[in-house]
Amino acid sequence: MLLIKVMSCLLPLAMGLRVQRSSGTLVDFTDPKVQGHLDALVRMAQSCVIKVRATPKDVRAYFTNSSPVSRSGQCFAACMLEQSDVINHGKVNRELLVHLASLVNGKNSRVVRKLNTVSRLCLDSIDGMSDRCQLASTYNDCLNENMIEFAFPLDIAEEAVRKMPFHLIQPKLPNISINSRRT
């Protein structure tokens, strides 16, 4: 079995856990290996929800290959990519991304061949960026835009959103000093 870190690197963009919308299924979602990868991805997302205080809209955007709707959505993408080591210290490890895709899809699969090309092109979209959340979000958006034929089925994306621990994120409360209260 692959390490969780490797398994969780399966981006909701082109890592093979996808169906082709118009011309049939690319992946058998009943395959235990695929289910294991999906489970690992959900566990990683759960951690990232808590870490960056992501909202349901943020997670839904990520899992449906949409651009983030907020700063926390951008940081959610960064967390997902950083936890998988695809992005480390502001640098994209394109080779790791392609390698991890090949673990699920096979080295010569259509997904991997296209990802190899697109991932290289997307490096240009982040040239000069230093903000980690913007960098990750922009890179992920570029991959999504260029690999549009690979997308999570909506029911799987929604199921992933339902599994997120949004209830554990406490709203930010005003900071009230004890000295400022009057009795």
UniProtKB/TrEMBL annotation:
Highest taxon, organism lineage: Eukaryota
Signal peptide range: 1-16
GO molecular function: odorant binding
UniProt entry keywords in alphabetical sequence: Signal
CDD domains in UniProt: PBP_GOBP
Keyword match Transmembrane helix: no
Gene3D superfamilies: Pheromone/general odorant binding protein domain
Identification of the protein by name: Uncharacterized protein LOC111364092
Species: Spodoptera litura (Asian cotton leafworm)
